[in-house]
């Protein structure tokens, strides 16, 4: 792989990670501005918006990038430009149609989501319509990002992601604060401004991409002078290829929002049916869909970022019918996910009380749900990775099957489990749905890739044993600290989390090095890291 491509991949990955981290941590000040009611309203709008935006743009940057780079490699630059010009028109149309669809079905979604009290339906409708405007801009932005990535230019995508997120978050926090504290507005008005921030952020990201376009226009036009002009591909064939590339990413991208949508349509009314009032049900909904969910997906993002880098190698080994290499790459993918995710979710579950206090406020419900929800992060990570592997071995059609089975189970079990276990019932239904989906994916991988799981089982047991020892050591530390520090205090919770995290990480990684597990998984990377550490020490 060329140094230019490596550098570009690093820049894009860095931009994506910064964008995701900003998207995770802004919920802390936002919660303190609008409270649980505001966060519940925010979730009511963002879950359907995420589904719509995933369908409208899911996989577009990667699909367009793959298409353009394919034809650029054979000096057919005009093909990519033809796709880009027609794509802008199509993305404008699909974006506007998506906006209209979400805007006009907002009352239906609101009625399905709330306790059907007229005021609640009106509030949810308002915030959904506020966020729907972003659908006009985001698809166009996705196409431009894909165009740049297809030319091995990752900087524009990375910078635009970060700018979009910074502008959006600034508008979310400033807008909500001004509405509530300077304009004496309502929570609904504050959250409407916050959700409309998605449109403002998208405008910011789009302007940065337009700036890059004008900056690099002469270079891109010069490429057309070297076009061979031997390939004449129709728009119909182009978009057929794009859909084939993009479809798997759409289904993977909407998996989690669809599970959350089941909660949105069933949770509030079910909680009210078992004795909760509107406020209590909405507070619990905010806890499960916004507050704890934002924390749970942190280890998922870290694990999948590492493991998904192995997918191109898996694809190559499968196409080349290189069985030893394929098995090695699959071993690495499965083991890296477990190695990075398991200790993180165990730590998150153990430290649920101080972590929830640190991010939001002390809450028995928040602590209980986070403690239950944290282990589900392993399932989120494995679904993403197994779905990516299915794409790598060209069996992505089974992703649709596994997702539908998982959703069917979630839909069937959500209401009865909520009635039995209350808020944790929704978590349990999600876990069961994901277990079913992952089981199907693993069966397909075993069947079509002829992959033996023996090594993963053995190494998995070693990871579990090391994590158990980490759990004991960290648990003892936690008990000692909570004897004189209170997890109900934000500052003291910070001290508890920091000390326990250092102790837990120290135990886990020292045992990983002593057992050689870290070397098995990361090889020379660990040697280089250790050499740098020794030099600095």
From TrEMBL:
Where does it live in the cell?
Cell membrane
Source domain of life is: Bacteria
Instruction: Name the predominant localization.
Output: membrane
Q: Which residues cross the membrane?
A: 12-34, 46-68, 88-110, 130-148, 169-187, 193-214, 242-262, 295-315, 336-360, 372-393, 400-421, 427-449, 461-485, 491-511
Signal peptide start-end: none
Q: Which UniProt keywords apply?
A: Cell membrane, Membrane, Transmembrane, Transmembrane helix
**InterPro entries found in the cross-reference section:** PG_synth_SpoVB, Poly_Biosynth_Transport, Polysacc_synth
Example GO CC term: the record gives: plasma membrane
Membrane topology is: Multi-pass membrane protein
PANTHER family, sorted: LIPID II FLIPPASE MURJ (PTHR30250:SF21), PST FAMILY PREDICTED COLANIC ACID TRANSPORTER (PTHR30250)
- Indicate what this protein is called per its UniProt record: Polysaccharide biosynthesis protein
Q: Which organism is it from?
A: Cytobacillus depressus
């Amino acid at each position: 792989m060329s140094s230019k491509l490596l550098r570009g991949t690093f820049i894009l990955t860095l931009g994506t990670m910064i964008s995701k981290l900003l998207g995770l941590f802004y919920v802390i000040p936002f919660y303190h501005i609008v409270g649980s009611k505001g966060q519940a309203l925010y979730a009511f709008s963002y879950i359907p918006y995420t589904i719509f935006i995933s369908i409208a743009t899911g996989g577009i940057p990667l699909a367009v990038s793959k298409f353009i780079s394919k034809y650029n490699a054979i000096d057919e630059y005009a093909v990519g430009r033809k796709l880009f010009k027609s794509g802008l028109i199509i993305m404008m149309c699909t974006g506007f149609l998506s906006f209209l669809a979400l805007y006009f079905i907002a009352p239906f979604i609101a009625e399905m989501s709330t306790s059907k009290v007229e005021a609640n339906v009106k509030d949810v409708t308002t915030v959904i319509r506020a966020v729907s405007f972003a659908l006009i801009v985001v698809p166009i932005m996705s196409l431009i990002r894909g165009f740049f990535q297809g030319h091995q230019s990752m900087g524009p995508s990375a910078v635009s992601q970060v700018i979009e997120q910074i502008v959006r978050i600034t508008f979310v926090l400033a807008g909500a604060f001004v509405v509530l504290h300077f304009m004496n507005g309502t929570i609904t008005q504050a959250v409407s401004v916050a959700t409309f921030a998605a449109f403002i952020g998208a405008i910011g990201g789009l302007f940065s991409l337009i700036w890059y376009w004008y900056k690099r226009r002469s270079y891109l036009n010069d490429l057309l002078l070297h076009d061979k002009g031997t390939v004449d591909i129709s728009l119909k064939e182009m978009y057929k290829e794009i859909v084939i590339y993009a479809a798997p990413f759409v289904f993977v991208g909407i998996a989690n929002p669809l599970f959350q949508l089941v909660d949105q349509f069933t949770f509030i009314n079910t909680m009210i049916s078992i004795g909760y009032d509107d406020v209590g049900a909405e507070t619990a909904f905010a806890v499960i869909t916004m507050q704890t969910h934002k924390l749970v997906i942190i280890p998922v993002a870290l694990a999948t970022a590492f493991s998904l880098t192995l997918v191109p190698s898996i694809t190559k080994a499968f196409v080349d019918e290189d069985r030893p290499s394929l098995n090695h790459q699959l071993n690495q993918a499965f083991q890296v996910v477990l190695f990075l995710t398991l200790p993180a979710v165990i730590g998150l579950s153990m430290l649920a009380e101080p972590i929830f206090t640190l991010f939001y406020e002390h809450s028995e419900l928040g602590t209980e749900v986070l403690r239950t929800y944290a282990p589900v992060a392993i399932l989120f990570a494995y679904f993403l990775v197994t779905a990516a592997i299915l794409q790598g071995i060209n069996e992505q059609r089974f992703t649709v099957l596994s997702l539908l089975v998982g959703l069917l189970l979630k839909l069937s079990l959500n209401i009865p489990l909520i009635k039995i276990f209350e808020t944790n019932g929704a978590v349990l239904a999600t876990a069961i749905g994901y277990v079913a989906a992952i089981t199907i994916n693993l069966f397909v991988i075993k069947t079509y890739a002829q992959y033996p799981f023996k090594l993963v089982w053995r190494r998995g047991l070693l990871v579990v044993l090391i994590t158990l020892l980490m759990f004991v050591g960290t648990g003892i530390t936690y008990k000692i600290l909570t004897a004189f520090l209170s997890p109900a205090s934000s500052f003291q919770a910070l001290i508890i989390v920091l000390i326990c995290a250092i102790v837990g990480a120290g135990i886990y990684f020292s045992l990983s090095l002593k057992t050689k597990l870290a070397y098995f998984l990361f090889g020379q990377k660990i040697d280089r890291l250790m050499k740098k550490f020794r030099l600095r020490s």
